[in-house]
Design goal:
With 361 residues, this protein is α/β, with parallel strands linked by helices. Helices cover 43% and strands 19% of the residues. The strands form three sheets. The chain has a seven-stranded mixed β-sheet, with helices on both faces. The chain is globular, with a radius of gyration of 20 Å. It starts with a strand and ends with a helix.
Length: 361
């Protein structure tokens, strides 16, 4: 088991290892009386087993939310608040999020807003949640206008990432989580790229734990220097400008990690068009994401449709779309991108022959 400290508005540990859910040392919760356990239907048996254990010393109430992004809805949030009221959750009590990224986002937002803030412990059960959603203190729900537009910064008291839960994770979901790991390699820790290049990482591979630790360390370092995304934390959004638009326009049929992979390729093409990187860097990212079974392009009804949704993104300032770019592995810059460059990059990504033909330029 390893422990990584995240220094935010308070310092909290991220525990990573096998068998942690069976170790009561991580779940003593001695300072709390009541617990609201939030989980998706797929984890009902595990939630019931944990609730039964915790019920020996605490009052526990479970709230099962709809699976996936459907759980990050205003109506579901209202239901969760009602469950918090029924459970009698006070400022001295605890919310626990057990599940993937949608669950930890929802649980974190419930905790951030109930009674203006109660404690939350996150138990991520997917790779994406372990390396991204559960760590860093960002919480949020979706609205009709876009993804995560309603949210709050609310750091957990602890994150417990039991790698045993990855054994039953569908390959598509594991691959989606790997997109966030690869992203961390692109923006900061280039050793990650060396560990994954030329292979498809699987859940049972020995390298998985090291990849999780490296990705969490990247996020911990960035969050520790910029909790509320006033500057440096923006680099964690590499690939997300297009990704959130893809998710929304696909009605969330495209997984978050899949959309991030697409968005990273798009951002790399933007960087190439601006003269910040060589085409080889675009191709290298495309090869790494593809080897992991992730998509590297996507089609919409029109560029105008994509552009309209991208303009609702949280990173838009003064009407300008800002993007994280990587001039080279481990290096980043953030700037506003001219509309014509955004459209040209979209065109390049859509044209398969043009996309690959540039490698000879």
């Amino acid at each position: 088991m390893s422990e990584i400290q995240v220094h935010a508005e308070h310092t909290y540990p991220v525990h990573i290892g096998a068998g942690l859910l069976e170790d009561d040392r991580f779940f003593s919760f001695s300072e709390y009386e009541r617990i609201l356990l939030i989980h998706p239907p797929t984890l009902q048996p595990l939630a019931e087993r944990l609730a039964e254990r915790w019920a020996k010393t605490h009052q526990v109430r479970c709230f099962c939310h709809p699976d996936g992004e459907a759980g990050k809805d205003v109506s579901v949030l209202a239901q969760a608040w009602e469950e918090a009221a029924a459970a009698g959750i006070s400022r001295r009590d605890l919310v626990v999020g057990l599940g993937g990224g949608a669950t930890t986002d929802l649980a974190g937002f419930v905790a951030a807003t109930w009674l203006r803030g109660v404690d939350v412990v996150q138990i991520p059960t997917t790779l994406l949640a372990m390396v991204d959603a559960a760590v860093g203190g960002k919480t949020g729900i979706n609205t009709a206008a876009g993804k995560n537009l309603a949210g709050a910064f609310h750091s957990p008291r602890a994150v417990v990432a039991d790698t045993d839960t990855l054994a039953t994770l569908p390959a598509e979901d594991f691959n989606a989580g790997m997109a966030e790991v690869i992203k961390c390699g692109c923006i900061r820790d280039t050793e990650i790229l060396q560990l994954v290049e030329g292979r498809r990482v699987k859940a049972g591979d020995p390298v998985v734990r090291e990849l999780i630790e490296r990705a969490v360390k990247v996020k911990a370092e960035v969050v520790g220097s910029d909790l509320k995304e006033a500057g440096m934390r923006e680099i964690l959004n590499y690939g997300h400008t297009l990704a959130h638009a893809v998710e929304k326009l696909s009605n969330y049929r495209v997984r978050h990690g899949e959309a991030v992979a697409i968005g990273c390729i798009y951002a790399s093409i933007v960087a190439f068009l601006l003269g910040y990187c060589q085409w080889e860097w675009v191709e290298k990212q495309e090869a790494i994401f593809s080897a992991q079974g992730l998509p590297t392009s996507w089609s919409a009804e029109s560029w105008e449709q994509i552009y309209t949704v991208m303009n609702t993104d949280k990173k838009v300032r003064s009407g300008q779309i800002r993007m994280v770019l990587t001039p080279q592995p481990g290096s980043t810059r953030v700037e506003a991108i001219p509309g014509q460059v955004l459209e040209q990059a979209w065109t390049v990504m859509q044209d398969h022959e043009l996309f690959h033909g540039n490698s000879e330029d």
